[in-house]
Each structure stands twice: as C-alpha cells, then as structure tokens.
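Chapter summary example.
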Amino acid sequence: MPPTDAERLERERLDADRLYNEALTALDRTVVDLHAQSPVSREDVQHCATALILFLQRITAFVDTKDRQLGADAARRFEALGPALESIGELRTQLGVMQRTVQTLTRHQSPVASQQPPITNSQPISNPQSIRNPQSAIRNDEIAYLAFEDQFRGSGESIERRLREYVPIFAGAAGVVDLGCGRGEFLAALKDAGITARGVDANGEMAAVARERGLDVAHGDALEFLESLPDGSVGGLMAAQVVEHLEPAYLLRLLSVAGQKLEPGAPVVVETINAACWLAFFSSYIRDFTHVRPVHPETLQYLLRASGFERVTIRYSAPVPDHLKMKTIDLPAAVLASSDPASQALASVAHTLNANAVILNTLMFTHLDYAAVGYRI
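The structure predicted for these 377 residues follows.
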C-alpha cells in the first residue's frame, strides 16, 4: 500500500530534521574552531563558509516541511478549535463591555458619585450643551470605547505609571489642565505630587470614572473648555494620546488657544503615537478606529513653535523591545581583521546585513510614543 500524504509528509519532516540538526552541529563546531584559530587561514574561512551554505540549504528544507506540517495541523485543529477560540475572544470583549456597563449603572444610581463638578470660570462655556450631565443618558458607545481602552491601551495603573515620567516637568506649577484626561491617570499623578489640576474629556463615561477617583474633571469639548478659561490663567497643559483624534483645523485652533491661556513660561506636553515608527503606526495607530490622522514628531514640534511656544523638544518613550528588532551578525574578530579575500568577502556580507538591520530598526522599531514638550513664551 502506498504511503498516505500524512505519512509522506512525516517522513520528509523527519529527514529534514535530521539533516538540519547535522548541518547545525557542523556549523556550530566550525564556528567554535574558527574562534580558536589564531591566525585564521583561508582554508578555515572557506570551511566555515561551506558549513554556512550547507546550513542555509538545510534550514530551507527544514522550514518548508515545518510550514507544510503546521499548515496541515493548523487546518485540522482550527476546524475543531476555531469556533471555541473565536468564542473566547468574543467572550473577553463582551465581559469587558459588561463590566463597564455594570459600573456605569451603579454610578448612575449614586447621584453624589455622578455629580458633574461646577465650572468656576470667569467666562461661560461657549456651548453649555457640550458639557452634558452624565446622568442624562447612558451612552453605549462611550462604554464600548472605555472597554476598548481597557483591553488595548492598558490598565489605569500601567498608564499612570508611564505618565508619571512627565510630572517633574510641572514641578512648582498650579492650575494645570489635562485635555482629554481619560480615566484621570495623569491627574492622579499630579495630585500625588501636590500639583493642583483639572481635566476635561469628551467621553462622559471616562470623565465619570475619573470623578469617582476624587478628581476635578468635566465632561465636554476640549477646545470649548480651554476657550472658557481666562487668558494667562493656566499653569501648565497636558494632552496625552489626544492629537491623533483631532482634525487638522481643530488641532491648529487648539494649540493657538493654548498659547493664549497659558501663563508665560508655563509648560505644555503633547504626547501621541510615534507615526515615524512603522510598528507603532501599523499596530497602535490603526488599531484605534477613532484615530483621525497621525502626527509626525517634526510636525508637532513645528506646530507648537508656530503657536507661541519655545524650547520645544521631542521626548521619545515606550522603546520597542529588543526581541522584536532585527538582529545583527557577530563574526570572530580574527575574520574581521584578516586580509584574506574569503574573510573579507564574509565580513562584507555581514556588514551589509548588519547595515540593513540598522536601517530597518531605525525605520520600524524605535519608540512607540513621543511627546513634544515646550514652554509658553
């Protein structure tokens, strides 16, 4: 009886495994011997190159059989587990939304916890209807987005821990405003540092969560809230992960008004996703369906300068972990120092590969976030 497709694939996989392991062992032995040689001869380098070529040939076959086997296994397993795995993902999302819904319903039953703090400014809000009473209605879309933040941006504790890095910039300030304050992570960090601050957020449920923590947060439009403040009355301004949600015209107006409302010398920190990092753009940025437009670091730096801020610098944060970056090749020092043509050729290949890895790391795997930090002139 001729072998079945599964049996033939298994035999090919075992043969590829054996040849791969033999080639890997030979290459490892050759590299060890090469490190031990001093000086390194042309024959040593050629022997290493031959072992490397053989290893590359073997690994190609090895990966091919693994791919085919995994594909076959995955097809069988997905057929059996696919619906279950999909249900787990759906359940996780539904539980997150349900948890936030229960918290919202509980909050609406407590007038004290849900009360909108008064806006005590000398100028009225230009559109009072934009600062809605959070008890007026339960917004399912706001609850869903709050649960989305929980799942994809991180817990409040992790966000607060990261945002604490900006607190020293506001040392000695008073009357700081946090635009798009979300769940109040940065406001809590400022409060712990003894810095008075208040915030505003367009998401009523997030604003309510922040108020439950004893923070001074209004529900409303950031620009209208800022416009309602007296000129030169704000001791510092924070906007973390906000500008990527804004239309260009709105952003330009917001920065212009910020320049009017801040005290001379007051700091401004505008943090956003680093769109110049490909990994950040193709993961963090496009994942969030509420994002409008990415903002390049140099663009945001220019906009702050053009809006009346000085000493504007870019601070990068959230570096991409090393295990996600391109790897480089380390050759023995003897090979790099050798004048032998074969050694020089091998070193040239390694140099080219390393240079390409550096280029890709610079474009794709730098920092996930950045902040433009400036001071009011």
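To summarize the output: The CA atoms of residues 163 and 186 lie 6 Å apart.
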